[in-house]
Fold:
Amino acid sequence: MHQAKVFITRRLPTDLAQLQQVATIEVWEERQPPPYEVLREKVKTVDGLLCLLTDRIDKQLIEAETCLKVISQIAVGYDNIDIPTATAKKIPVGHTPGVLTDATADFAWALLMAAARRVVEADRFTRAGLWRTWEPDLLLGANITGATLGIVGLGRIGQAVARRAKGFEMRLLYTSKHRCRVEVEQSLGVEFVSFESLLQESDFVTIHTPLSDDTYHLFSDRQFELMKQSAILINTARGGVVNQNALYQALLDGQIAGAAIDVTDPEPIPIDSPLLTLDNLIIAPHIGSGSRQTREKMANMAIANLIAGLKGDRLPYCVNPKVYE
Structure:
């Protein structure tokens, strides 16, 4: 009987014993993603691929002389995978939705608070030996309680952020591709407004929209011009939603007061990026879902998808269910 083979593109924070019962496993042990050429060779000999957002699974790779029966990704998003080509080849693609909502919302809130009260700047200031005495105007930040929060994209994570904001008695505005049901708006205490109105009225703007043709560089020069000079931008969605050149100029010129981002374009951010020179910007290395419990759940969901695909069963969390038609 054929023993299934699986290639995993990074070490996982979970036990692989269940997967080892149904497949021979090869794990890429390096911190950096496997080169594209390595991936192309691997898919010629394995039945299952367990990958990350950092892996380019494009048309050329999927259409190679592949033995792939299933592609399983540890992420909610899958814009790195050519879904139409996978579907045409009858290869089911799995992802890990839902599980990272609270962890990412927590982190978005942590970034918002850190940026508002200049926590990272204060830490650097103290470590540099510059703290000499209490000063009335030292590192003054912005109030959060009672401020206006604009949420761009009111999906699961956006709604979770709104629930956290209610505890700070914030006025909550949102804009989204589709307006939510009235009962959802009422339960969250949110008000639907145009994108332009949200930018003009918000003290904080937090991004929770997927990356698509419509949202690529959704935030650029014009949008920063509309925002308050005291406003702070938070992005835990996708780096491509924000034009980084425009963000740099807006922060440098004082068009907005600050920003905190967990995602960049590209990732990782180049070490010579001018964004790294700014004091009014916090940059985290894409760790929004990075709690131990969440990452373990994500890995287990990805493994469940992988095992189902290897057995010929329907994936529990399938991106392209058309493969079963």
